[in-house]
Structures are given as C-alpha cells and as structure tokens.
C-alpha cells in the first residue's frame, strides 16, 4: 500500500482532506482517527502534525505527504516538493519595531525570534548575515516587546497582528509558501518502491487542480466567426467544433479559466455567439 501523511489539524488539514476526497480517495469522518485505510485505492493515510510530516517522509517511514513548503524547508530533511497544491498560501517575512529596520543587512548581530529556525538560518547564511536566532513555538510577535529579540521572522497573512504589536514588515519576502505534496529524496526514494502509485496520486491531484481552475464553456456561433471566437476560447489544445442543423452555425466547446468566465462570455456575446453555457468540471486528466 502507498503510505501517505496528511495534516491532522490546522489550516492545512481540512483543505488537504477535501482535495483528497475530490481526487477519489476515502478520508476519515472522525478527527480522532489517526490511521485510515482505503482498500479500493490500495492506499493508507496517516494523520500527523503538519510539522512532523516532512520528518516521517524524509526518513522513509512514509512514502509521500502533504505539508507546507515552509515546514518542509524548515525540517531540513531528505525530502523534496513534488507538486504545489494551491491552498494554504502564506508569506514568511521579517518584521520589527516601526522605523528600526529597512533591510536584511541591518540584522547583523541582532537577535531574531522565529518558529522556523532551520529555514531562517539557511536564509541568513546564504546572504552572509550573522545574527542570533531565537527559536519560539508561538506568539513570536510578542518577543520584541518582552526583550527576547530585536526583530522577528514569521508567517504573515494580513499583518494586523504585527501592527497591533507596534511592528512593521521590512525587506523582501523570505519565502512564499503553500501546501505541497512531498516525497523522500536520496538513496531509496519512496519507502516501498511505490513510484507508479505516486504517479497516480499526482495525476489525480493535478486533475483536481485543473478542475478547480477551469470551467467548460459551450456556445453557438456562425461558421465565419469561429476563428475569432477561438482566440477567446483556445482551450488547452484547441476547441471542439461540431456542426448544427443550420449549416451556417456550429457549436463550440472549450475549457476556459474560471476567473475569466464572465469577461469571456461578454466578449463572445458581443462577437455574435449565442446560447453561451458554463459547466463545472468535477474531475479531469490532462
């Protein structure tokens, strides 16, 4: 069986399970379950702390896992990113008291508090900045006020918490993170030599990503306008064009980006298309 690590709680957990369900895999109904077998797909899921997943995968105990890119890099284990999953986006940044810092070079000799000490040490080393890294498990933004650190490096979403603590973001982003599928690197690869099963998992997850980003658009249009319409709806390869009873008209079907749906419909209508319909895509293989 393919052994897969899934986040058991936090912002990654619900979205990861929802994506796996859309990909056709069984998921737990009780959050107290730690292991769940899906015999139809020959796969076993282990629900673990997001921060621990990279460690289990990197040691070869589990074949693949879903975790954050920031957690993967911070763990500093023999594991690699296979596929970005498009959810749980966040940005890892520096922050300090308002007006104190403007760039990373000013952190030389300073104390930096963070929950991601491995990731931060690598970032500073790559830039030749020597600073003392203070590892904290949470409430990093309070460390400056309490005198533990001069600045912090933390995951930033809205920045409201930092403002409330009298701090501001400075410098370039350290890392842009999101949920990712990972597997072991180095000698041995996946724990059980399950390369084919991993390919199937990746293909299914890619299908979910495409289904979430695209819709199917159908419309009728005069034959002499098909080429212009195709520039608006080129599809992934090319649009499907089918004859209608009226020989001067054809039916067109194409995949279009979901976020551009209404703009494309308006432009097609102005061009002369009619009976423009949009359908959701529940699953696909590209």
UniProtKB/TrEMBL annotation:
Domain ATP phosphoribosyltransferase catalytic: 49-207
UniProt keyword Glycosyltransferase present: yes
Domain Histidine biosynthesis HisG C-terminal: 211-282
Catalytic activity: 1-(5-phospho-beta-D-ribosyl)-ATP + diphosphate = 5-phospho-alpha-D-ribose 1-diphosphate + ATP
UniProt-listed Pfam families: HisG (PF01634), HisG_C (PF08029)
Documented activity regulation: Feedback inhibited by histidine.
Gene Ontology molecular functions: glycosyltransferase activity
Chief location of this protein within or outside the cell: cytoplasm
Keywords: Amino-acid biosynthesis, ATP-binding, Cytoplasm, Glycosyltransferase, Histidine biosynthesis, Magnesium, Metal-binding, Nucleotide-binding, Transferase
Entries under SUPFAM superfamilies matching the protein: GlnB-like, Periplasmic binding protein-like II
Cofactor(s) it depends on: Mg(2+)
Keyword ATP-binding: yes
Involved pathway(s): Amino-acid biosynthesis; L-histidine biosynthesis; L-histidine from 5-phospho-alpha-D-ribose 1-diphosphate: step 1/9
EC number(s) reported in the record: 2.4.2.17
Subcellular location, record wording: Cytoplasm
CDD domains: PBP2_HisGL1
Function summary: Catalyzes the condensation of ATP and 5-phosphoribose 1-diphosphate to form N'-(5'-phosphoribosyl)-ATP (PR-ATP). Has a crucial role in the pathway because the rate of histidine biosynthesis seems to be controlled primarily by regulation of HisG enzymatic activity.
The family this protein is said to belong to: Belongs to the ATP phosphoribosyltransferase family. Long subfamily.
Protein name, as recorded: ATP phosphoribosyltransferase
Native source species: Arthrobacter gyeryongensis
Source species taxonomy: Bacteria, Bacillati, Actinomycetota, Actinomycetes, Micrococcales
């Amino acid at each position: 069986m393919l052994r897969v690590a899934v986040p058991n709680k936090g912002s990654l957990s619900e979205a990861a399970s929802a994506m796996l369900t859309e990909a056709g895999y069984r998921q737990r109904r009780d959050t107290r379950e730690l292991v769940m077998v899906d015999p139809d797909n020959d796969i076993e899921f282990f629900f673990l702390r997001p921060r621990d997943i990279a460690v289990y995968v990197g040691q070869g105990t589990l074949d693949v896992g879903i975790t954050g890119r920031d957690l993967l890099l911070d763990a500093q284990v023999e594991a690699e990113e296979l596929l970005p999953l498009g959810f749980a986006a966040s940005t890892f940044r520096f922050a300090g008291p308002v007006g104190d810092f403007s760039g990373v070079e000013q952190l030389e000799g300073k104390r930096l508090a963070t929950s991601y000490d491995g990731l931060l040490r690598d970032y500073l080393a790559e830039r030749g900045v020597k600073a003392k890294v203070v590892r904290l498990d949470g409430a990093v933004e309070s460390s400056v006020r309490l005198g533990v650190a001069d600045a912090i490096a933390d995951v930033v979403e809205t920045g409201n918490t930092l403002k409330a603590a009298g701090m501001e973001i400075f410098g370039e982003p350290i890392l842009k993170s999101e949920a990712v599928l990972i597997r072991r690197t180095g000698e041995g690869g996946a724990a059980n030599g399950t390369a084919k099963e991993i390919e199937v998992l990746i293909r299914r997850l890619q299908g979910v990503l495409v289904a979430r980003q695209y819709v199917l658009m159908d419309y009728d249009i005069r034959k002499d306008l098909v080429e212009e319409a195709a520039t608006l709806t080129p599809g992934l390869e090319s649009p499907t064009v089918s004859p209608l009873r009226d020989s001067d008209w054809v039916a067109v079907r194409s995949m279009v980006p979901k976020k551009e749906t209404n703009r494309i419909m308006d432009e097609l209508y102005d061009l002369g298309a009619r009976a423009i319909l949009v359908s959701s895509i529940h699953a696909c293989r590209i």
